Structures are given as structure tokens and as C-alpha cells.
Amino acid sequence: MATFVLQIQNSSIMKKIIISFIFLVFAWTAIAQEEIKTNQDTKDIPEIYFENTSYNFGTIDYNGNGTCEFKFKNTGEEPLLLTNVKASCGCTTPTWPKEPIKKNKKGTIVVKYNTKIIGSFTKTIRVYSNAKTSPVTLKITGTVSKPETTTEN
Fold first, then answer.
1. Where does residue 85 rank: exposed (0-12), middle (13-18), buried (19+ CB within 10 A)?
2. 9 CB contacts (<8 Å, ≥6 apart)?
3. CA separation for the pair 107, 132 (Å, rounded)
4. 98-144: per-residue pLDDT in tens?
5. What is the Cα–Cα distance from 94 to 85, expressed in whole angstroms?
6. In what side-by-side order are the strands of the sheet with 67-74?
7. Per-residue pLDDT tens for 49-85?
8. Total-model pTM
9. What is the spatial distance between Cα 13 and Cα 74, in angstroms, rounded to a whole number?
């Protein structure tokens, strides 16, 4: 009986050891990936420069034009690739160039806000790329006015 209890305790200890080992492997992998990122030679990595990182629409009419542009330039040595551009919610839709932006060339991210949503808004757009400063956060703000109502007598 004592041998059986000892085996149960040992199997419980073995489970803890195995779980700890798996956790350490995952942690080591994450650290190794971070080291690879930070140890890269950064002189040839693309750099993204935005003319502006925020845009204020002011007051927009209901169902009006909620489109703005963010212009950027690749100031690095290698081609810049925008891998993803994500808005903070579904009411904002970004479109961006999918082809690489060569050294010293410019590109534009177009952002469309849904102006059928009445009231003030502040939205962020995250730009993911192969640049040193990725991700970059862009911001749009404004107020959508209430639609005018007409009454007929």
C-alpha cells in the first residue's frame, strides 16, 4: 500500500515537472524570438515617416465625406512593406498600398469613417510594417452632426 501511495505522489510530481518544462520551453522560445528582433542590424531596415499622424475632421455632416489621407515616405535603405493596417473599430476602414514602397518613395493610407454615426469620435489606426518603428499609431477625430429634419405644413 505504501508503494502505491508513493507512486501516486511521484506521478503528481512528474506532472508538475513536465508542465514546468513545457512552460520553460515556451518562455525560452519567446525570449529567443525577441533577441532575434533586437539584434538585427538596423542600418538597412526601412523607416516610415508620416507627414502627419493625426487628422481632425472638425464637424462633418451626417452621411458626409468622412475620408482622409495619411501620406508617408520610406526614408530607409530597403523597401518598406505595410503588412497590416488595423482600425480600432469597424466604423473606420483603412486602405493601404500592398506593394513595397521603395527607398525615398511615398505612399498614402486612406481612412474612411462611417459618418452615419452621430456624435464625437476619436479612432486609432495601427500601421504594421517591416520598419524600425512598427507599429505606428494614426488618429482621427471629429464630430458628426445630426441630420437636418424638414417639416412640411
1. buried
2. none
3. 17
4. 999 999 999 999 999 999 999 999 999 999 999 999 999 999 999 99
5. 7
6. 48-50, 67-74, 106-113, 92-95
7. 999 999 999 999 999 999 999 999 999 999 999 999 9
8. 0.69
9. 55
